[in-house]
Amino acid sequence: MNDTALYAQILGIRSPWKVAEVKLALAAGEVSVFVERDQTIPMTCPKCGATVPGYDTRQRKWRHLDTCQYKTMLVADVPRVQCPEHGVVTVEVPWAEPGSGFTALFEALVIDWLKEATISAVSRQMNLSWNAIDGIMVRAVARGLARRENEAPKHLGIDETSFRKRHDYVTVVSDQEQGHVLHVALGRNKKDLTDYYDSLSEEQKAGIESVSMDMWPAYINATLAKIPDASRKIAFDKFHVAKYLGEAVDKVRREEHKVLLKQDCKDLSGTKHVWLTNPVNMSDKQWRWFRDLRESSLKTARAWALKEAAMGLWHYVRRPWAVKAWKKWLAWAVRCRLQPMKKVAKTIKEHLWGILNAIILKVTNGPAESINSRIKTIKVRSRGFRNKERFRNAIYFHLGGLKLYPEGIMR
Question: What global pTM score does this model have?
Answer without folding.
Answer: 0.86
